[in-house]
Write a structure and sequence with these properties.
With 407 residues, the protein is mainly alpha-helical. The protein has 19 helices and no strands. Helix 1 packs parallel to helix 7.
Length: 407
């Protein structure tokens, strides 16, 4: 019953705060890099199509890199979750510094921005795996709360970033990103597991006897998850379409960068209560059912935008984040943690993020072209159709196929 002791509560608070700060810096930078990607690139002379191509290339590289990195980490060699995160932060820091001196230079901006965009996506699942790795050696991190506060960090950054861009220009994105990455490097460098496990909880796990699987054996072992990933690609085709080209959608509704910041703030701050209470929610609904709920919410979110005529409708669409992304991310993390062996954990988390980025690839390639040639509404109708297919796939995968098929 040590979980009720003052010492245990103190350890929970301390470890959760430390992990929360890592999440907070990550998502502050996620705002400056990902949420403002189109603003930054358009401000440096890129067209919508060029923005789409650049982000598609970055997403392709990320989708390829994530399972490869996970496979290496799963072998439990010198490359650990923590070391890869620290390496990623340093790369983003250096890349942001280069961009600071490359204004309107497409030849430099294209590869460097694609690299930092890619590497930030690549280490997102590793951060999730880091939490569960530390939990298994007895570090009592409350994942849902930490992840929710990460979204709150994104929300706070979003609330101010639009006004800062309007008054200071797009270079402010790089200054903020550099400062956040320096802080992030310090936090991660000092985030070390205790020399001895805090407790034996999770130290012994019969699931861990299985070695790291090949892609084929992974699909056979987890049929529901593997098919559901196709649905995830469709969900995030629509989700990335909205996020990556949000500034154009908002301008079409009469808004500007300040409204972009408010819209991002709204959707991100709504993630906090759901993620913070995910442990309680999972006692009422399984992670499998939560994933299906999130798919439907992604669909409703983009349908609203098809018929939007003002910023009020935009904000209503963003409120769907409460049931879409806010539910999907922790539910997917817990689904992987519950159904997969220890040696498949990092790979499972990586496949989720790979599916998200693949959705981004197709969205980036198609959305920019549709936007340049046909406009906002045809782009959103396309996203709605793809997302609807994803919902059908998701329901079949989770309700008809077994979660795990042991060899």
């Amino acid at each position: 019953m040590t979980s009720d002791t003052p010492v245990s509560r103190k350890n929970t608070v301390l470890w959760t705060i430390r992990y929360t700060l890592i999440n907070a810096t990550y998502f502050a930078a996620f705002c400056t890099i990902h949420a403002c990607a189109a603003v930054f690139l358009l401000g440096n002379g890129f067209s919508n199509t060029e923005v789409g191509v650049l982000l598609a290339i970055a997403n392709i590289l990320s989708a390829i890199a994530q399972p490869l990195i996970a496979g290496i980490i799963d072998k439990q060699g010198r490359l650990t979750n923590r070391r890869f995160i620290l390496f990623s932060v340093i790369v983003i820091l250096l890349g942001s510094t280069i961009l600071l001196f490359s204004e309107n230079n497409k030849l430099v901006i294209f590869p460097v921005f694609a690299l930092i965009y890619m590497i930030q996506f690549a280490y997102q699942p590793v951060m999730t795996a880091l939490c569960f790795e530390y939990q298994k050696v007895g570090c009592p991190i409350v994942y849902g709360l930490a992840r929710g506060l990460g979204s709150a960090s994104f929300a706070v950054t979003s609330a101010f970033i639009g006004g800062l861009i309007e008054s200071n220009g797009i270079r402010i994105l790089l200054y903020i990103n550099i400062a956040v990455m320096i802080l992030s490097a310090i936090l991660i460098f000092t985030f070390k597991k205790p020399a001895k496990p805090v407790s034996n909880a999770g130290a012994e796990d019969t699931k861990s006897s299985t070695g790291s699987r090949s892609l084929g054996s992974f699909i056979k072992a987890y049929p529901a998850f593997s098919l559901f990933l196709i649905g995830v690609i469709c969900f995030f085709f629509a989700h990335n379409m909205i996020n990556d080209f949000m500034i154009q959608i908002i301008r079409n509704l009469g808004g500007a960068e300040k409204e972009l910041g408010y819209a991002n703030f709204l959707q991100a701050i709504l993630e906090l209560p759901v993620m913070a209470m995910i442990g309680l929610i999972l006692k009422k609904l399984s992670s499998k059912r939560l994933l299906l709920i999130s798919g439907v919410a992604f669909l409703v979110k983009i349908v609203i935008l098809i018929f939007a005529t003002n910023m009020g409708h935009m904000y209503l669409s963003q409120c769907c984040q409460l049931f879409a992304y806010a539910v999907f991310i922790p539910a997917a993390a817990y689904y992987v943690s519950k159904t997969m062996t220890d040696h498949d954990q990092v790979k499972g988390q990586a496949f989720v993020t790979s599916a998200i980025t693949i959705g981004g690839v197709f969205s980036n390639l198609i959305s920019g072209v549709i936007l340049d040639h046909l406009g906002i509404r045809p782009m959103l109708i396309t996203g709605t159709a793809v997302c609807a297919v994803g919902v059908l796939i998701g329901f079949f995968a989770m309700l008809k196929l077994p979660a795990r098929r042991d060899a």
